[in-house]
Amino acid sequence: MRLLHTSDWHLGRAFHRVNMLGAQAEFIGHLVTTVRERGVDAVVVSGDVYDRAVPPLAAVELFDDALHRLAALGVPTVMISGNHDSARRLGVGAGLIDRAGIHLRTEPSACGTPVVLADAHGDVAFYGLPYLEPALVKDEFGVTKAGHEAVLAAAMDRVRADLATRAPGTRSVVLAHAFVTGGQASDSERDITVGGVAAVPAGVFDGVDYAALGHLHGSQTITERVRYSGSPLPYSFSEADHRKTMWLVDLDAEGSVTAERLDCPVPRALARIRGPLEELLADPALARHEDAWVEATLTDPVRPADPMARLGERFPHTLSLAFDPDRAPDDPALSYARRLAGRSDQQIAEDFVVHVRGAGPDEREQLVLRDAFDAVRADEAVREVSR
Hints:
This is Nuclease SbcCD subunit D. Keywords: DNA recombination, DNA replication, Endonuclease, Exonuclease, Hydrolase, Nuclease. InterPro entries: Calcineurin-like_PHP (IPR004843), DNA_Repair-Maintenance_Comp (IPR050535), Metallo-depent_PP-like (IPR029052), Mre11_N (IPR041796), SbcD (IPR004593), SbcD_C (IPR026843). This protein is an alpha/beta fold. The protein is built from eleven helices and 19 strands. It has two domains: 262 residues, Purple Acid Phosphatase, chain A, domain 2; 57 residues, no CATH class. Helix content is 32%, strand content 23%. The chain has a six-stranded mixed β-sheet. Helix 10 packs across helix 11. The longest helix is centred in the C-terminal third of the chain and has 24 residues. The model has no long low-confidence stretch (mean pLDDT 90).
C-alpha cells in the first residue's frame, strides 16, 4: 500500500506580514496532483490542519476545497487533530464525511478503533491518535500523573490490544501528533512541555509498521518506521535550512517500509543574514538572497539610520529586522533577549529566584514552579477547547 504522509498545514497562518493563503492553496493543488500521478492509495494528515482553534473563513473554505478534491479522487484520507486545532470543530460531521472516504479522528477515546483499508496483500489498520493534552485526557486513559509519555503509552496500549485481535498479517499505521525524542524543533511550534518534559521516546510506537508523526516542522526520520513529514511551508526563519517535503511511503506485504521525500512548492526562499548594515548592502556573496524573504540582524555598535528602508533597496522582501550589536560578553548593555535565548520558562523563573533571594530554589520549590507552569498550560488548553 502506498501512503502519502503530510502534516502541519496550519491553514490560515501568515509568515510575518505575508498572507500565506495563496501558497497554502498551491500546496493543496500539489498534494492532489501527487496523489493522482503517483498512484497513492491513502493520504495521512498528522494534525495541525488549522493554525488556531477558530480559523478564519478563508482557511475553512480552503480546507473544504481540499476535502472535496481528495474525495473526488476516491483515495481515502485519514486525518487527526493537532495541538493548534480545535478537535471538536475539526471533527464536526466526521460520521457523514467518513462515507466519502475522509476519516477524521479527533476523539481520544477512539484511539483503538482503526480505519481499515485493504490492498492486494490484505488489511492495513490506520489508528488516529489526535494530540493528547495530558491534563485533559489522563482520566480517559487511566493514568495517575498527567504527562505526554504516560498518555501516549496508554493510547498505544489500546492500539496494540486492538491489533492483536485482527487477522495475522494485518499491517498497521499510527498517526500521532507529539514531540518524539530525537526530533529537532524550530521556533514555529507551540510549546507542549508538561512536567518539564515535552518529548516521548520513539519506542512508544513499537509494534506498528509505520508511525506518521506531526508537530515538528522539519521533515525527519526518527527511525525507519517513525517519521515526521514536517510542514509543507515555512512558518518561521528558523526553518530557513528546511527542505519542505512529504513522505511517499510504501508498505509491502510483510509491512516493510520504503520512503521517498517529495518536494513541496515553496513560494520564496528564506535567508538569514547578519552583519553591519554597510557590509550587508555591499557584499556580493549575498546577491543570491536578493529575491528571498530575509531576516536581517544588524551588528553595528550604533543603530544606523533608516535601516529597514535601506535594506529594502537591495532586499525588497525583508520581513524581519533585529539588532545585536557586537559587544564584549561582560558588557552591561548586552540585550536581555540575548541572555534569555534558549532558556525554558522554568530556567528563567529559577534564575529570577536566584536574582531576588541570592540562592536558587530547592527541589520542592522547583516542583512548585513546574506545577504552576503546567497548570497555566492546562488552563490555556481548556480555553482552546471551549472556544
